Amino acid sequence: MLKTALKPRWIAGLVFAIAISGVFVLLSQWQFGRSTQAEVPVSTATEDVRPLTSVLHPGNFFPGSAADQMISATGRYDPQKQVLVADRLNGGAKGYWIVSAFAVTNAPVLKGSGATPQTWIPVARGWVADPAEAAAPPSGTVKLTGRLLPSESPVGHTDPGAGRASAVSVAELINDWNVSSYPGFVAAKTELAGGTDVGAESAGGPVKPLRIGPQPPAQQVNWLNLFYSVEWVVFAGFALFIWWRLVKDDYRRGLEDAHDEEMARQDPATHRDQHRAGQPATEGSATEAPAAEQHPAETQLPAPYPTDPRVQS
Predict the structure, then answer these.
(1) How crowded is residue 17: how many other Cβ atoms within 10 Å of its Cβ?
(2) Which residues of the chain have pLDDT under 70?
(3) ∠ CA 72-75-80 to the nearest 5 degrees?
(4) Eight-state DSSP code of residue 283
């Protein structure tokens, strides 16, 4: 069959089938790319720094429109209110986030039992590989800029230990710090104290900055486009199958034609004589006929009737 497939016309057919399959695969990739689409386009407005007090309000739910917004706030840190959050990656290495409580100046004050006269917000100030290298927050009035993020969910059935937290969870932190808080946290970018940037990005010490960009929007799956992408792959395989089937049919036709030609070359009479020569001779068979013809038996005349022996007078 390989000899049949190597015929020039079938080689040309294979090249054509591969080209058609390639087009179908490209169409499949195009349909697959369209099967996942962002629900909303990426907004660049989040990169404009806005005051925290105008973006988020304490005591309310965290709105989706506030996520990833770059904010600014003025206030002070409490060095006694700082925890480490484990299992945080930085360049592929595991370490800890340093999360400190930041009292926001001119923030709305919550009312009710358990509320404190000052409203706070957790600030992820940086990343360290060794917990012993976690520096204390800067003292005095600090002007903070960073990215506003929603609260994380705490990890259940775990005891992170003293000075640790399972996640940057506002619900978990306010219980440890006993403060009123915004329903979110800030990943710090700059921290200005007395006009000098004392943040992790400028300090250059063991504390590494958190470079958190805007999160990509959620995506939805278009099942119709996904089905089309699979369909084009099937078409690509079908094009190659058709070529193989045509080559196979040509190969079978060649075998049938060769068999017919072989049968036509044989003489039917010769074939019959060869068949007879292969049979054993039997008594009274036709093999004795030539000898009988070469020595014919003499013709025997019938005997005369017997005469009467008596002499007649």
Answers:
(1) 20
(2) 36-43, 216-220, 267-313
(3) 125
(4) T
Encode pLDDT of 142-191 as tens digits: 999 999 999 999 887 888 888 999 999 999 999 899 999 999 999 999 99
| Cβ partners under 8 Å of residue 173, min gap 6 | 83, 99, 101, 122, 165, 181
Task: Please say whether the dihedral angle defined by the alpha carbons of residues 151, 155, 161 and 164, taken in this order, is positive or negative.
Answer: negative
Please state, in angstroms and rounded to a whole number, the distance separating the CA atoms of residues 34 and 24.
15
Helix (H) or strand (E) holding 128: strand 119-128
Asked whether the beta carbons of 27 and 236 are under 8 A apart, the reply is: no
One-letter amino acid at 32 equals F
Q: What is the pTM of this model?
A: 0.60
Q: End-to-end distance of the chain based on CA atoms, in angstroms? A: 109
CA distance 289 to 197: 131
Query: Would you state the structure tokens that stand for residue 57, as one six-digit string?
Result: 């309000």
How far apart (Å, rounded) are the C-alpha atoms in residues 50 and 144?
11
Closest-CA residue to 105 (of 67, 136, 73, 79)? 73
Can you spell out the DSSP letters for 46-110?
A: GGS-EEHHHH--TTS---GGGTT-EEEEEEEEEEEEEEEEEEEEETTEEEEEEEEEEEETTPPPP
Backbone angles phi, psi at 216, to 5 degrees: -65, 150
CA distance 146 to 123: 9
- Report CA 256 to chain centroid distance, whole Å: 47
Q: Which residue has the tokens 């003025």?
A: 74
